[in-house]
Give the backbone structure.
Amino acid sequence: MRKIIASLDIGTSTIKLVVGEFIKNNLNILCVSEVPSKGIKKGLIENKDELIPVLKETFHKAEEMLGVPINEVILSIPSYYTESFMSEGGSTITNEDKVINNQDLIRAMHAAIYNKIPEDKELISIIPTRYKVDEEIVKNPINMIGNKLIIKAVIVISPKNNVNKYLKVMDSIGIKVVDIVSSCLGDFEANKTKAVNNKIGAVINIGEETTTVGIFNKGILTKAEVIELGGANIDNDIAYIYKITKKDARDLKENLGLACSNMADALEKVSLTDRLGEEITINQPDLSEIIESRLVEILELSKKQINLLTKKNIDYILVTGGTSEMGDFNILLDKVFTKQHILGKIDSVGVRNNKFSTAVGIIKYYNIRLKLKNKNYCVFNSDELEMLSGNHKKININENSILGKLFGYFFDS
């Protein structure tokens, strides 16, 4: 069975559907569908009637490219009001040979959350941080011999009302949500390296209307918060100062502006008509000063948020999100941060842009949970795989991909 996963990131600016296949542990992107978003405000559903047609269009575009229907996805939800806490649970090994298997691990996870999730909250993730077999701490308990398995884990929860809104919308268009992943977790998985995996750091995603700040301790999300500023605020600043439309402001930001005004060239300029019908000329240094001012504010607020979220020493700050694709953004990071900072880089063919950080990351996050549940998974059935193979013979896809054991939602059958 091929290991193909579909992820959906419902953003304020665009909705991104990514379908990828793991071949020898490498992620190959099969399809990307991106459609301008409607009905979403600051990452949350504001108008489902506006959102539903856009979601249908997103899936329709992907299905046209692949030639097969997509009926289920891994869904990213924003880190709004996400909470996390430590918990512990255990499982008695009851089989005759006392060999620990995946079911023993799942039972220990269930014990870790039993009666610990408030009624108004929804479980998002269980992230094991330590395993103990009898009295011995181990890295991987599977296939070990013992009488008792105890796990210590980070439990990530979110308001049930927020989650249910997404689930109801997806159900209304006939799409099954296989699992839910916090956007912060996706951003970390998409950009992590060996250098940061065992350190304490922060991940900042500058989105359209919000900026998410997450704290990670050795790859484990401990806390997250959202700042209600993003790329749209830059558009508003430009539109207000030059008296132009937000569309023109966004085009200027993306095609002329730089994140660091020191690097701007006065000879780079454009002329356009403002809302009063007057012809105006905008040069790169002036435009970039407006952009840099707002970006510095966002990054400084992110620094303050990091200090509020943790008192521990931060080893790195990783910055991603669509706004981080601006020219000379890395130079601005040098000006703002004194600590080690990393500009995210999504470099898989087909998604070479940081705006795909969350969508790509939740696919990777889902995949690394292989050993937590002994289960085969592919978004397509055997008939659909035959259709997919026929439509994509020109793409070099190994038909004998690794057998998938994907971590599904903990309470499925």
Remarks:
- The mean pLDDT is 89.
- The radius of gyration is 23 Å.
- The first strand starts at residue 4 and ends at 10.
